[in-house]
Design a protein that fits this description.
With about 375 residues, this protein is α+β, with helices and mostly antiparallel strands. It folds into four domains: about 80 residues, Beta Barrel (conserved putative lor/sdh protein from methanococcus maripaludis s2 fold), CATH 2.40.420.20; about 90 residues, Efflux pump adaptor protein, beta barrel domain (Elongation Factor Tu (Ef-tu), domain 3, Beta Barrel); about 60 residues, RNA polymerase II/Efflux pump adaptor protein, barrel-sandwich hybrid domain (OB fold (Dihydrolipoamide Acetyltransferase, E2P), Beta Barrel), CATH 2.40.50.100; about 70 residues, Helix Hairpins (Orthogonal Bundle). The strands form five sheets. It has a six-stranded antiparallel beta barrel with strand order 3-12-15-14-13-16. α2 packs antiparallel against α3.
Length: about 375
């Protein structure tokens, strides 16, 4: 095999070529590293950014509650009997004292008749004893009988009077039992529930009707004990009924003097200023208790705040870079999507777009459709 002999000049030339290749490779790697380490730019449009505004909001305390009737009644049967007549239906307007249902109990009718007969007999005996006492008094005055005989007649008459009182009490008891079979409405209002039908046998304590007065409605709600300073009688309230976007007003009228031991919440009530349809009874509401003091701060969209409950922050463009800024939330207006906060700079632009921690310090450019 033929051997190749390299001269010194050839070896020198090859060494120069190798060194050039190594330097070129190093330069290419350095360029790649520089390019990789350069942060990528983020493009946003003006609609993605909101300028921070200095402002003030009236202090509010948010709550949830329900609409209830001030006057409502649940009517139960007082006797065990059979319903013979039911005169009202759900949705029907009734007046106080109006008959709702008649219950038939033959035993109570018989007891009332017997009690009345016993009362009549006792009254006759008392009348006879009175006449006998009067006759003996005349005989005693004429000296025909002894005093003891006259006094005995007085005792007999008083005994008969006590018997009359006892029989009258039995009549009253029997009459009430009979009257309990005629059930009337204790309030004027609307039947919201009927649980009895003609021919049905009902038992003592069974609910037959539920009635509410739709003309007197109120708001029933609760607040955590930590927010009790917001509860003051006479405070104005703004609220919305579930399913209705109309803003309504009310006045706080009553506050429970003690907090619930289990939930540690304080119950309060408010009277609506506008007339509310009875169909809203039982509906949920969202409201705010308005206070006279105002809070100063910076206003931003409520939905731009991240991690609201624990450690709230917002993404902002500051000095043309993306920054993650912690804030303090002072007030929240869910209906208006406004939050009053502090912790931002006047020149910050709050981003509606959410970013990742890896985006922090990346350059931001704001483009328009024309630029694109």
């Amino acid at each position: 095999m033929h051997k190749m002999h390299l001269t010194p000049s050839t070896i020198f030339k090859l060494s120069i070529i190798s060194l050039c290749l190594i330097l070129a490779a190093c330069n290419q790697q350095e360029t790649t590293k520089t390019t990789a380490s350069a942060p990528a730019k983020i493009e946003l449009i003006p609609q993605d950014l909101i300028a921070v505004k200095e402002g003030a909001l009236d202090s509010q305390t948010a709550f949830t509650g329900t609409i209830r009737a001030v006057q409502q009644s649940s009517i139960q049967a007082q006797v065990s009997a059979t319903a013979t007549t039911v005169t009202t239906n759900v949705g029907q307007q009734v007046q106080k004292g109006q008959v709702l249902v008649r219950l038939n109990n033959q035993d109570n009718v018989a007891r009332l008749a017997q009690a009345r007969a016993n009362l009549a007999s006792a009254q006759s005996q008392a009348e006879l004893a009175r006449n006998l006492m009067n006759r003996k008094q005349r005989l005693f005055n004429q000296g025909f009988i002894a005093r003891v005989e006259f006094e005995q007649s007085q005792v007999d008459y008083k005994g008969q009077l006590e018997s009359v009182k006892a029989q009258q009490a039995n009549v009253d008891i029997a009459r009430k039992a009979d009257q309990d079979g005629i059930i009337t409405s204790p309030i004027s209002g609307v039947i919201t529930k009927r649980q009895v039908e003609p021919g049905q046998t009902v038992s003592v304590g069974q609910t037959l009707f539920e009635i509410v007065n739709p003309d007197q409605l109120e708001i029933q709600a609760k607040l955590p004990i930590e927010q009790q300073s917001a509860l003051k009688v006479g405070s104005s309230i703004q609220y919305q009924i579930q399913g209705n976007s109309k803003q309504l007003n009310a006045t706080l009228t009553r506050i429970s003097p003690v907090a619930d031991q289990d939930s540690r919440q304080i119950e309060f009530f408010a009277v609506p200023k506008e007339k509310i349809d009875s169909l809203s009874i039982g509906a949920f509401i969202n409201g705010n208790i308005l206070r006279n003091d105002t809070q100063q701060g910076q206003t931003i969209p409520l939905d731009s705040i991240q991690n609201m409950q624990h450690d709230p922050f917002v993404w902002v463009v500051r000095n043309h870079t993306i920054q993650k800024v912690k804030i303090r939330v002072i007030e929240q207006r869910y209906n208006d999507n406004i939050a009053l906060v502090d912790g931002l700079q006047r020149t910050d632009l709050v981003s509606r777009i959410q970013f990742e921690d890896s985006d922090i310090n990346k350059k931001v450019t704001v483009t328009t459709e024309k630029n694109k």
